[in-house]
Amino acid sequence: MKLAEVWNQMIMGATVRPLTHADDDLIYKFQAAHPDYFNHFQDHPVTRNEAIQDVTDVPMNAMPDQKAYLGIFKDDQLVVLVDLIIDYPLPSLVWLGMWLTDKQLTTEQAADYYHSLVATLRAAGAVQLQLSVFMGDRQMKQFWESQQLQPIHTTTVIRGERAANVTIYQDKF
Fold first, then answer.
1. Taking a C-beta distance cutoff of 8 angstroms, is the pair 72, 78 a contact?
2. SS in 3 state form for 93-142?
3. Distances (CA, A) of 151 to 19, 100, 146, 172
4. DSSP character for 162?
5. What is the CA radius of gyration of the chain?
6. For 121-150, how does the pLDDT look when each residue is reduced to its tens digit (9 = 90+)?
7. Per the CB 3.0–4.6 Å rule, which of 14, 80, 87, 153 could disulfide with 168?
8. pLDDT tens digits, one per residue of 22-63
9. Preceding omega of 18 cis (within 30 degrees of 0)
10. Which helix (H) or strand (E) holds 164?
11. How far lies 2's CA from each of 32, 94, 154, 170, in Å?
């Protein structure tokens, strides 16, 4: 089952499709428009190489076929960038590695897109989703808590010489 195809059946007024290296310029431009997100864990704006590396990067102990790097498009404009690892770190669990929304999107629109993702994941057999939120990212903390995700664990993530505290949130469905 292709996740984007199933998600397209669950979403109204937008189209979901996989993002590939053919979209490198779009991915970089979209990520570069979110400097606050990257300031949580690195001391420089996202570079083009860092942005496009996300297309194929998978965490340790994950396989490339577990990755779904998707874009939601409304009127041919990328409005949400989603990085998922399916069955990670356990079967039936989905890790949401990145959820970036266009700055013009309302909270309600972002919530609708998230709920369509949950419906899609349920249809694919997933039972829960987990993600991390950087401490100090009040906007995303508030967003995920308003979607009824529960904080389950706080930890430190190390990237290069920088460390960042994160809270792991979970949505069981």
1. yes
2. EEEEEEEEECCCCCHHHHHHHHHHHHHHHHHCCCCEEEEEEECCCHHHHH
3. 29, 20, 12, 12
4. E
5. 15
6. 999 999 999 999 998 899 999 999 999 999
7. 153
8. 999 999 999 999 988 887 777 788 999 999 999 999 999 999
9. no
10. strand 162-172
11. 28, 15, 33, 24
User: Exposed/middle/buried for 159, CB within 10 Å: 0-12, 13-18, 19+?
Assistant: exposed
Encoded tokens for 133: 């939120």
- Please give the helix or strand (H or E) that residue 2 lies within, else none: none
One-character DSSP codes across 8-39: HHH-SS-EEEE--GGGHHHHHHHHHT-HHHHH
Which amino acid is present at 158? I
Report residue 171 as tokens: 């949505």
Angle between helices 3-10 and 107-123 (to 10 degrees): 120
The reply to whether the predicted model has a pTM over 0.85 is yes
Is the distance from CB of 129 to CB of 171 less than 8 angstroms? yes
Query: Which residue's structure tokens are 């039972």?
Result: 127
Tokens read off for 168: 């792991």
